[in-house]
Amino acid sequence: MSAPGGGPAFLAFSEKGAALAERLRRALGGTVTCTRTVQGFSLSEWTERAFFTNSSLVFVGAVGIAVRAIAPYLKGKAVDPAVVAVDECGRFAVPVVSGHLGGANDLARAIAAACGAVAVITTATDANGLFAVDEWAKRQNCAVTDPHGIKGVSAKILAGETVMVRSAWSIEGTPPERIRLTDGREWDVCVDVRRRQGSGLCLAPRALVLGVGCRRGTSQAALESAFADLCESLELWPESVCGAATIDLKSDESGLLAFCEAHGWPIRFYSAGELRQAEGVFTASAFVEQRTGVDNVCERSAVLAAGGPLLERKHAGGGITMALAWRPFRLDWRWQDA
After folding, report:
1. Core-most of 118, 249, 301, 337, by most CB within 10 Å?
2. Last residue of a domain, which of 183, 205, 227?
């Protein structure tokens, strides 16, 4: 299943609510549905569809309606979309689920700015004006590899203790209150594309592009197995990969397309001529050049799509080649809009 997107799905239950929803749609994008104008409207059907196809849902009505509607579909903070309830008078915008990782807190603030409402933010770190590690991870384009670890970090901050952050990147700006950088073995949060020894919260920067070469007709399962082997050999977080690339001869490969879709990756296709223009030293293959017109597909395509150097050269096996390249990536300490 592809990642949810498409902007907020607004649902209103009255003409007054529909007018507010339309006002918010003009400011924030998305779609508006009013139960009064849809014959045979089903709240459960609308919610199920919107829950799995939109990045966020906004119920223009009572919080209780939103809670009962989404309850059957909730899976966890790492995968649920943002859900916000706003009263039809536009006085209060209340994040219901996925305040940080899903962006419901930010959406409530945006709604408040658009219609003059008060954003009712109840997450503990926000209520106390303290650093929210999961919101920071989202804003910095990092994946939380185990959302269960968020609670421990937040509890430590709320208890007035210092949280130690280890990062493979420098982090611009001044660390927030109760946060300290470390390069030692003891850490509470680690920011790295590779797995590191420790028991804290690991954040995987989405900083890598996967270059792929494969035989005609290669299956999705074979590609999944090759990717798992690559990540295991490098002790790499799979979540650090954010896109894929290959030669345009593979643009109709159903297994490759399904593999990328399953991971939510965009895939870029390059001609042999474009691949030959990639800058760098690559692992040449006379066989590959004979078949495709260029001496290497996976390394060259990864570098072109990423706009950065190789992290890992060609891994080959079973008719599949894979390589990884760095995208430009930076971190700062901002976790909320100024």
Report:
1. 301
2. 205
Would 127 be classed as within a structural domain? no
Position 331 in a domain: no
Dihedral (Cα; 227, 228, 234, 236), 10-degree rounding = 100
Residues near 82 by beta carbon (within 8 Å), at least 6 away in sequence: 55, 56, 57, 95, 97, 98, 99, 102, 103, 104, 106, 107
Residue 45 near residue 25, CB atoms below 8 Å: no
The amino acid that residue 235 corresponds to is E
249 domain residue, yes or no: yes
The alpha-helical segments, DSSP class H, found in 85-169 are 104-115, 124-127, 133-139, 149-158
Specify the pTM: 0.80
Phi (first) and psi of residue 82, to 5 degrees: -70, 140
Tokens of 95: 């994040």
Taking the CB of residue 2, how many other CB atoms lie within 10 A of it? Answer: 12
Domain that holds residue 283: 208-326
The total domain count for the chain is 3
Measured between alpha carbons, how far is residue 158 from residues 128, 161, 335 in Å?
Answer: 8, 7, 17
Tens digits of per-residue pLDDT, 188-222?
Answer: 999 999 998 878 999 999 999 999 999 999 999 99
Weakly modelled stretches of the chain, pLDDT under 70: 1-6, 337-338
Three-state DSSP state, 254: helix
Among the candidates 122, 157, 188, a domain finishes at: 122
CATH number of the domain at 177, please.
3.40.1390.40
Q: Write out pLDDT tens, residues 258-304.
A: 999 999 999 999 999 999 999 999 999 999 999 999 999 999 999 99
Q: Measured between alpha carbons, how far is 39 from 228 in angstroms, rounded to an integer? A: 48
Question: Do residues 236 and 313 share a domain?
Answer: yes
Q: Helix, strand or coil for residue 94? A: strand
What Rg value do the Cα atoms of the chain yield, rounded?
23
